[in-house]
């Protein structure tokens, strides 16, 4: 928990230090969370090739219910290092795995919402505006279901920016979807 707090506050070095201290006193094997944490830390430290390898291993070896967490971090990583085509390669398989899961608690639902947002980012970068818009709407709706207003608004802003930047008129179907998000139906 302390490592995660340090990580979230941006102190990567201290987060890694706490992780290694915890591992010294733990007799268990690395958990899926530990493996993902190390991949993310290596990325943040600039060890891109090592992080790629670790993300792939984690994705192939993790428990089924941990796939969304790894998927989101991996896709986010790939988008940040501009490996857009790699996202397109892995997205169909990962989407199938995620669609097979049931998301029952707010943390899991947040991961699903983030997944849709990342898909929107991917489609936006590949200029597939309609798919980007649909994923941003889906993400906003999922965020609204867990009362994550800031992320909900961010997705709606991304959606409206796409409309404006591509000079697309909002159609009735989209308006109805946004109305559902706003009404949290």
Topology:
Blueprint: H1 2-8, H2 12-24, H3 32-44, H4 48-61, H5 67-80, H6 84-99, H7 106-125, H8 129-145, H9 149-165, H10 172-183
Helix pairs in contact: 1-2, 3-4, 4-5, 5-6, 5-7, 6-7, 7-8, 8-9, 8-10
Characterization of the model:
- With 185 residues, the protein is mainly alpha-helical.
- Helices cover 77% and strands 0% of the residues.
- It is built from 10 helices and no strands.
- It has helices spanning 2-8, 12-24, 32-44, 48-61, 67-80, 84-99, 106-125, 129-145, 149-165, 172-183.
- Helix 4 runs antiparallel to helix 5 (67-80), helix 8 (129-145) runs antiparallel to helix 9 (149-165) and helix 8 (129-145) runs parallel beside helix 10.
- The chain is globular, with a radius of gyration of 18 Å.
Mean pLDDT: 85
**Radius of gyration, in angstroms, nearest whole number:** 18 Å
Q: Based on helices, strands and strand pairing, what is the structural class?
A: mainly alpha
* Percent of residues in β-strands: under 5%
Counting DSSP H or I runs of 4 or more residues, the number of helices is 10
Helix content: over 70%
- Write down the overall geometry: globular
- Report, as a whole number of angstroms, the end-to-end distance: 34 Å
Q: Could you give the order of the helices and strands?
A: HHHHHHHHHH
Major sheet details:
none
Total beta strand runs: 0
């Amino acid at each position: 928990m302390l490592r995660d707090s340090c990580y979230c506050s941006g102190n990567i070095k201290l987060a890694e230090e706490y992780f290694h201290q915890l591992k010294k006193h733990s007799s268990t094997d690395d958990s899926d969370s530990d493996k993902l944490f190390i991949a993310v830390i290596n990325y943040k430290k600039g060890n891109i090739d090592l992080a790629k390898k670790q993300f792939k291993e984690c994705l192939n070896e993790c428990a089924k219910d941990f796939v969304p967490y790894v998927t989101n971090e991996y896709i986010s990583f790939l988008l940040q290092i501009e490996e857009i085509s790699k996202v397109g390669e892995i997205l169909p398989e990962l989407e199938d795995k995620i669609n097979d899961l049931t998301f029952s608690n707010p943390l899991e639902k947040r991961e699903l919402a983030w997944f849709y947002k990342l898909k929107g980012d991917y489609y936006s970068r590949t200029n597939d505006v309609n798919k980007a818009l649909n994923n941003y709407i889906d993400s906003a709706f999922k965020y609204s279901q867990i009362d994550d207003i800031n992320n909900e608004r961010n997705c709606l802003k991304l959606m409206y920016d796409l409309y404006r930047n591509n000079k697309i008129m909002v159609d009735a179907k989209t308006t109805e979807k946004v109305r559902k998000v706003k009404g949290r139906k």
